[in-house]
Amino acid sequence: MPPTRRNLPQLLGDARRWFDEGLLAAMEAGGSAPVSPTQAQLFAVLDDEGTTVSELARRMAVTRQTAHQAVHGLVAAGLLEQVPDPASARQRLIRRTPAGRSAHRTAHDVLARLEERLAERIGKDLADALRAALEAPWGPPAP
To answer: What is the pTM of this model?
Structure first.
């Protein structure tokens, strides 16, 4: 039986894991507090001025409870803080602490190095084409 061709979502998931694993390993090797892939994803979708837990959950495509757990772990690690939302007395914003901003800058640098490493491995033209394909507007999915 011929090998099954993997679909594009599976391949994109593998690519995401490659970056996540490289990022988390580099951050931990650099002395950063260990974080989970979910916590790293939360960090990536957080606005500089702060974001509500509900909005974080929507952006991450996870439950509010999952986002809330990730927030609490990062608050305990000193990377995030909760502050009152000036637009709503009932909500709180999640934002990076000074240590969190530093970790975010470091993560940005690590990801840039991982992109360079990928370009070295698959070739700059393929890496550029991959970026162009992912940045192109895809439109809504077909029903």
So the answer is: 0.82
